[in-house]
Specification:
With about 240 residues, the protein is mainly alpha-helical. It is built from seven helices and no strands. The longest helix has about 40 residues.
C-alpha cells in the first residue's frame, strides 16, 4: 500500500510540474505573438493571444485544484512540499504574464482600429526580447532545478527596469515635441509597462525556483543575495535596502 501510494504521489507531482511547464509554453507564445503584432497590426495574432489567454486560465484552475488534492491526500514534506508551494505561487505570476500579453494585444487592436501609425521605440524591442528570455530561462531553471540560472533571471530584471525608464523618457519627449503623437505614445507606454510587468513576474518566479531548490526566501533581498543563495553560499548580508547593485 505504501509503495502504491508513493508511486501515485510521484505521478501526481510530475503531472503538476508538466502542466505548469505546458502553461509556461503557452504564455511564451502569447508574449511573442502580442509583440509581433505591435509593428504589423496583425489581427490574427491578436486573436490567437486572446484565445490562448483562455487556455492559460484553464491551466491555472486545473493545476491549482490538483495541488489542493495532493496536499489533502499525501501531506508531503520537505522538498516535495516546497515544490507544491512554489508552483502554487508561480501559478499566479504565470497567469498574470498571460494577462499582460493580452493587454498588449488589446492595445494593438485599439491602435490599429483607430488607424494610428506605429511609433518605433527601440527600448520596447529590447524589452520584449529581454522578458522573453527571462520567461524562457525561468521555465528552464524550474525544469532542471537550476537555481543559478534562476538567479540570473533575478539579475536580468534590473536591465528590463532600465529599459522601461528609457522608453518612458523617450515617449514623454515625443509627446512634448509633437502633441499629435500623444495618443500613440500613450499606447506605447501601456505596451512598455506590460512588458516591464512581465519581467517582474518572471523575477518573482525565479525567486520561487531558488526557494524550491535551496529553501531560501530571497524576495526583497536583492540580486546579489539571490546569486549567493543560488550557489549555496550561506553568508549573504547585503540587501537592496543597503544600496546593493
Amino acid at each position: 500500500m505504501t509503495e502504491h501510494t508513493n508511486k501515485q504521489f510521484d505521478a501526481d507531482l510530475e503531472s503538476v510540474r508538466s502542466q505548469f511547464l505546458q502553461m509556461g509554453g503557452v504564455v511564451e507564445a502569447m508574449i511573442q505573438e502580442s509583440v509581433d503584432a505591435v509593428p504589423t497590426g496583425d489581427m490574427d495574432l491578436v486573436e490567437k493571444v486572446r484565445e490562448r489567454e483562455k487556455q492559460v486560465n484553464r491551466f491555472e484552475v486545473e493545476i491549482d485544484e490538483r495541488i489542493g488534492l495532493i496536499l489533502a491526500r499525501h501531506q508531503p514534506t520537505a522538498i516535495d512540499l516546497r515544490t507544491l508551494l512554489a508552483v502554487s505561487k508561480m501559478l499566479t505570476d504565470m497567469e498574470r504574464c498571460g494577462d499582460e500579453a493580452e493587454k498588449i494585444a488589446n492595445t494593438v487592436r485599439r491602435m490599429y482600429e483607430a488607424d494610428q501609425r506605429f511609433m518605433p521605440v527601440i527600448e520596447i524591442r529590447h524589452m520584449a526580447a529581454s522578458v522573453g528570455r527571462m520567461l524562457h530561462d525561468v521555465l528552464d531553471s524550474f525544469a532542471r532545478l537550476d537555481p543559478v540560472l534562476a538567479a540570473q533571471v533575478v539579475r536580468n530584471d534590473k536591465e528590463v527596469d532600465r529599459e522601461w525608464k528609457g522608453a518612458l523618457r523617450n515617449l514623454i519627449t515625443y509627446m512634448m515635441e509633437d502633441p499629435r503623437t500623444i495618443s500613440r505614445a500613450i499606447d506605447m507606454v501601456f505596451i512598455a509597462r506590460a512588458l516591464e510587468r512581465i519581467g517582474d513576474h518572471a523575477k518573482n518566479m525565479a525567486e520561487r525556483v531558488i526557494y524550491l531548490v535551496r529553501g531560501a526566501d530571497v524576495r526583497h533581498t536583492g540580486a546579489k543575495n539571490a546569486e549567493r543563495q543560488a550557489r549555496g553560499e550561506v553568508e549573504a548580508e547585503t540587501t537592496e535596502s543597503n544600496g546593493e547593485a
